[in-house]
Recover the amino acids of this structure.
């Protein structure tokens, strides 16, 4: 009897180890997810993420019949509506090509010959990091493969090509260790939270083979922003992940969005907790295209009323925007340019900016370059914000997370040419009734979905917004400037959910110029339109407080690279405002 029992135990032991071997083999060779690891091995198991090596044939340059050593690789290619974006990757020690040395090369998809069908000069080349570049090429004829080449080194192999209308294009790991993914192509409704259970996030290099990717839970999804639970293995491998692993979103039971979204972190050291005291009280973020000639006035003016930091999201400018930003930075302004080539993504860009500003800015305003914060009270911006957010009501202390500021829309004011002293002095006639509003927000007060409609954000439940009385603060929106400037609005709108001015859609919308239609044809009476009341409030303050007493020049009229000094600023009374001057909602 003992012998039979011993055999019985041995048989079960052999079966146990055989079963364990089968399960382990199945997990290793059939893909895995973060939740699988936690279930099978517990929270302490931390596998190492490994990355595939590229084959030698991928490191060749097409140059006649003989491949030569690779100098760069085309990492990704994205087809936008009217141009092509190519992301180049160089070896760390390599010298980056200049715009003059690079060519946009168009190859036939069906013809294996390396002889280019067409060559054109790139519209722009931007250096994103020490070993990476973004090249903008004109859109070529349909059916051609687009890559880059150089006159000395031949044609470089084309990279994976993606269509813009279905793509995961950016990803950041937030301070709470979640991943925020920015996507196109899910077609979700604006200002609505969608059902997160229908989706999952995937991490890896090749999304065509789901067995080789990490999967994770979608925590929230709204508009074009997805928040994911970041797998522990990704957080622990952040140095490698940052340059190698991409993130995308998969519709359960459906397909996975193509992705160029490589993980980024909010700081060099990873996901640091928010500081108790941030370095800047007031910041401003904007998305701009070809605003170089107005940027200097916009930055200098706001510096003089108390703004300390500027985030410029450059949306495919082809003027001197980069040089103006560099000159302002060299003059002492804390300003940075973030390359944002994605079309009709203003909401996503503002959410991206809010994440970046969370660790640096107590408050950040989201306004355009033709919008100026005007403080009729004469206070500095940080004083106005402090007064408005330190109120006490009958309900006790209230946490204010967003300040909404009304916008006055100014017209051409009788002008036919760009005013020499700047928009703040030149345009003095506007519509009587304010149009819409813009917001100054506390970044940590934003709802985790990051929903916004450009003009304001959705807030967490424990925060409220406040409407500012126009006697305290207003936005002067120089919306209808001289025709030379205004006609540029017909190129493309930057917001996701509004029709372009040339589209035969919502022609009567308030987002358009009344009675103008869909064509950029100057009306005979353009210079006198949109003038219902004269308003010289901001003009008077600028000339009185900011003009140089020696030569009457304004800071943005000078060629000096020095930051405007305190002699341009008049000290004002900073007493508290009264509760009756605003309305709490």
């Amino acid at each position: 009897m003992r012998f039979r029992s011993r055999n019985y135990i041995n048989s079960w032991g052999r079966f146990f180890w055989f079963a364990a071997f089968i399960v382990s083999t199945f997990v290793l060779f059939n893909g895995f997810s973060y939740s699988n690891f936690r279930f099978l091995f517990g929270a302490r198991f931390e596998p190492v993420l490994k990355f595939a090596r590229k084959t030698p044939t991928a490191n060749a340059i097409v140059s006649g019949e003989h491949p030569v050593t690779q100098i760069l690789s085309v990492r990704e290619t994205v087809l936008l509506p009217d141009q092509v974006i190519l992301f180049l990757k160089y070896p760390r020690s390599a010298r980056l090509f200049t715009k003059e040395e690079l060519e946009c090369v168009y190859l036939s998809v069906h013809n294996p010959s390396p002889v280019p069908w067409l060559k054109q000069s790139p519209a722009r080349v931007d250096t994103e990091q020490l070993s990476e570049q973004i090249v903008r090429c004109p859109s070529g004829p349909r059916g051609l493969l687009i890559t880059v080449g150089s006159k000395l080194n031949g044609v470089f192999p084309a990279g994976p090509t993606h269509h813009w209308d279905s793509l995961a294009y950016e990803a950041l790991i937030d301070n709470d260790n979640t991943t925020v993914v920015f996507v196109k192509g899910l077609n979700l409704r604006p200002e609505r939270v969608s059902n997160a259970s229908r989706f999952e996030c995937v991490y890896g290099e090749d999304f065509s083979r789901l067995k080789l990717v990490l999967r994770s839970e979608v925590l929230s999804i709204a508009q074009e922003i997805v928040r994911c639970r970041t797998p522990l293995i990704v957080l622990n491998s952040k140095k490698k992940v940052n340059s190698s692993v991409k993130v995308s979103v998969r519709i359960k039971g459906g397909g996975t969005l193509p992705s160029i979204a490589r993980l980024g972190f909010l700081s060099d050291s990873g996901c640091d907790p928010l500081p108790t005291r941030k370095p800047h009280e007031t910041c401003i973020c904007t998305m701009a295209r070809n605003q170089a000639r107005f940027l200097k006035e916009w930055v200098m003016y706001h510096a003089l009323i108390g703004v300390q930091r500027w985030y410029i999201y450059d949306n495919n400018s082809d003027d001197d925007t980069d040089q103006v930003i560099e000159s302002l930075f060299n003059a002492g302004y804390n300003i940075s340019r973030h390359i944002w080539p994605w079309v009709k993504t203003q909401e996503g860009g503002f959410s991206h900016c809010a994440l970046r500003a969370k660790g640096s800015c107590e408050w950040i305003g989201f306004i355009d370059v033709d919008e100026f914060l005007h403080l009729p009270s004469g206070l500095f911006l940080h004083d106005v914000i402090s007064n408005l957010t330190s109120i006490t009501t009958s309900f006790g202390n209230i946490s204010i997370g967003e300040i909404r500021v009304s916008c006055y829309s100014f017209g051409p004011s009788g002008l036919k040419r760009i005013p020499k002293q700047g928009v703040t002095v030149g345009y003095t006639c506007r519509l009587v009734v304010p149009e819409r509003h813009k917001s100054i927000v506390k970044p940590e007060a934003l709802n985790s979905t990051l929903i916004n409609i450009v003009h304001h954000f959705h807030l967490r439940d424990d925060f409220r917004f406040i409407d500012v009385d126009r006697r305290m603060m207003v936005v002067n929106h120089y919306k209808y400037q001289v025709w030379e400037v205004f006609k540029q609005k017909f190129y493309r709108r930057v917001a996701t959910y509004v029709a372009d001015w040339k589209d035969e859609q919502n022609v009567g919308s308030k987002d358009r110029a009344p009675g103008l239609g869909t064509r950029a044809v100057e009306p005979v009476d353009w210079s006198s339109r949109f003038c219902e009341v004269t308003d010289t409030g901001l003009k008077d303050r600028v000339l009185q407080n900011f003009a140089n007493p020696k030569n009457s020049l304004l800071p943005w009229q000078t060629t000096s690279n020095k930051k405007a000094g305190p002699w341009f600023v008049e000290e004002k009374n900073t007493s508290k405002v009264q509760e009756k001057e605003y309305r709490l909602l």
Observations:
- Residues 1-10, 25-69, 566-585 have pLDDT under 50 and may be disordered.
